[in-house]
Design brief:
By secondary structure, this protein is α/β, with parallel strands linked by helices. It has 2 domains: 7-56, no CATH class; 57-234, Rossmann fold. Helices cover 32% and strands 22% of the residues.
Length: 238
């Protein structure tokens, strides 16, 4: 008896991936798998195939899913092209989302992606073109100045290529008084240790999210040699 035939055209993720591989150049594509499944992103797949295939920073996805499921507010510091901001707007119950991205090119991409997903004018979102820091000069803002409710659970993501401690220090009061799930992308062992020490002193249990073993086969081709994540949550919740 011959095995039944399988119509792979009915397997939509596979069909979408095949179409994406055939056509090149930057264009809007609907992500078929992974954390951002169903989100439309303007991508050049020659350089962003891992985002399309759900492999970019996939090690962080379990933490993000858990944090997004319980947060009432969220802050995306170093929002880049806005993938996480979109996830929070489209797939979480967060009533307030702050996205920070001072780079003009990244901000333009973020705005384009918001429009592609119909959330460019979402009243929950505040988009800042400022850097987060304790610096009192124009062009900077502190987390503690945002007026976030420390009595509600929050989610803070930080990806700022070396300025992690400045961001955390700017929210010392919020982090001390609130219950916040914190995800920090770290780029140096010393900074990772400093961030963990700062959060631990404020009642957080910290753990490193290491790079997956298969990154040796499918690297993310990052410019910095040290690149992994520090996850933290209040000890009572952990």
């Amino acid at each position: 008896m011959s095995p039944p035939s399988v119509n792979l055209t009915k397997f939509r993720p596979l069909s979408a991936i095949k179409r994406a591989l055939v056509a090149g150049g930057r264009r809007p594509v609907r992500v078929p798998v992974g954390l951002f499944r169903g989100v439309t992103l303007d991508l050049d797949l020659a350089h962003a195939m891992q985002k399309y295939l759900g492999l970019w920073e996939t090690e962080t996805y379990p933490f993000i899913r858990a944090a997004a499921a319980r947060c009432q507010w969220a802050v995306d510091v170093g929002a880049g092209a806005g993938e996480l901001t979109l996830y929070l707007l489209l797939k979480s119950q967060a009533g307030t989302v702050h996205a920070f991205e001072p780079d003009a090119a990244e901000t333009a991409q973020l705005r384009a992606n918001l429009a592609l997903n119909g959330v460019a004018d979402d009243p929950r979102l505040t988009l800042h073109t400022l850097a987060v820091s304790t610096n009192p000069n124009p062009g900077f803002v502190a987390l503690d100045s945002l007026g976030l409710d420390a009595g509600q659970p929050g989610f803070l993501k930080i990806d700022v290529d070396g300025q992690e401690m400045h961001v955390l220090q700017s929210g010392a009061e919020l982090l001390s008084e609130g219950t916040v799930d914190v995800l920090v992308e770290t780029h140096a062992p010393s900074l990772e240790s400093a961030c963990a020490g700062f959060l631990s002193a404020r009642g957080y249990a910290c753990s490193v999210i290491p790079n997956a073993w298969w990154r040796r086969l499918v690297p993310e081709a990052r410019p910095l040699p040290h690149n992994r994540w520090l996850a933290a949550m209040k000890r009572a919740r952990a």
